[in-house]
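To close the chapter, one final illustration. This time we ask the reader to focus less on the individual chains and more on the assembly as a whole: which components sit near each other, and how the overall shape emerges from the parts.
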Amino acid sequence: MQTWRLDLSWDGRGYLGWQRQPQGPTVQQAVEEALARVLAEPARVDASGRTDAGVHALHQVAAFRTAVVRTPRGLVGGLNHHLPRDIACLDAQVAPEGFDPRRWTRGKLYRYRVLVRRPRCPFRQGLTWHLGQALDVDAMARAAAAFPGTHDFSSFQAQGCSAEHPVRRLASARVLRHEDEVWLELEGHGFLRHQVRIMAGTLVEVGLGRQPEGWPAQVLAARDRTRAGPTLPAEGLWLVRVDCPMTPRPGHLAAGEDDPDPGDT
Amino acid sequence: MQTWRLDLSWDGRGYLGWQRQPQGPTVQQAVEEALARVLAEPARVDASGRTDAGVHALHQVAAFRTAVVRTPRGLVGGLNHHLPRDIACLDAQVAPEGFDPRRWTRGKLYRYRVLVRRPRCPFRQGLTWHLGQALDVDAMARAAAAFPGTHDFSSFQAQGCSAEHPVRRLASARVLRHEDEVWLELEGHGFLRHQVRIMAGTLVEVGLGRQPEGWPAQVLAARDRTRAGPTLPAEGLWLVRVDCPMTPRPGHLAAGEDDPDPGDT
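The assembled structure is written out below.
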């Protein structure tokens, strides 16, 4: 048996997120079906974490095990041949024994994209959240400075989040102008369910002048979901990069320890 | 009667180009149908030029005439309400009497986008031409320096082009790296049919090392379509900007004079 690493990317518009669902198509299901065709045997593929319906991935890391022998190039080509066009396999490589994207991942970068120009854009329907008005990006950036660090993020946790506790370490929080969009970029090891979308919704309140710059820090300290801004739509959320080295880090989580990423974003 | 100017944008994947066709949906038809709903009368909309099936527009200028009274804001809102989601009205304004986008346009910027990374991109299917291998951008840029100026562009003219003569003035030709894409940007007053796509196909031959840097200049001088590279697919072609001021330029073409833009790109 060999363990393989897959680097994937997908347009989330057609999927109910990563994880298999009885209700409709998911990315995991599509990848497993394509892989089963390539290997000519049933396949089980696990990713570094789940993503919600409609969320996009520029980069996700996944893994599977098989005794079937394939070259990396053959595997990438075969997968892309069988995958739907809105999912791409970027790379495939043999991984060390025990490779587990969920436990070996050291960090993830999420981006929330807000389209601020008034007219809609034909090319970004479902790929950005269309606000249609200007935001005070400098005020949002100053407000976001309260987020990095190890905190109890209960205020930014969706109801029904399966995390065992609400403490996470956020490595960075940046608010950027990018042409006619405003981006919130959050980097961290693990995220609570809807954390990025609720943080974005909270910062947008500041950007619209409805709340002062100091308000997000107060929301964080309150540890109360009802104090934060709204959960913004999934369509603006992008998993940009998963930092998952092929060597386990010292002290990485063993199977059964608390899952750093219980349902994402 | 008032003449109105419309600034439009569309994703060309679902359309047989701008101009009405019996065989299928076009952008002109979609805009005219939406406008007829807004005005509650039949509408005729003319653009600065045609675009081919599958070609995208970040910006196109069009015009129509009506006696129905509307505010610019009401017109934009009404059009975007009735238009399909892959077409957007960016702006509407009352234009001077006689405003004619085809004749008043001073220049257009076209971009041909080549995706050079090996794996496909789920977000750019049909929006770029996927070559999947590296190009020598510097060699292409040096080769493209032969194109600007007033030339007989017969070598880069599709069969069946309706232009009365093949002489055009090309203001600039740039080849740029943009992340994992290579862009050919051509600016000029008018273009021959498939001109941008054939020029891009010619420069790609240089970028792949199949032809020397001096070859595109020889192709231009030959005035012979069979000497040039292939016509690249429409999906990579974008109309980026139409420079159409609301004042006629001195010596602008009168109706009936040679059409600078007989079928584009």
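Residues 32 and 236 of chain A are 26 Å apart (CA to CA). Chain A is about 20% helix and 30% strand. With these observations in hand, you are ready for the problems at the end of the chapter.
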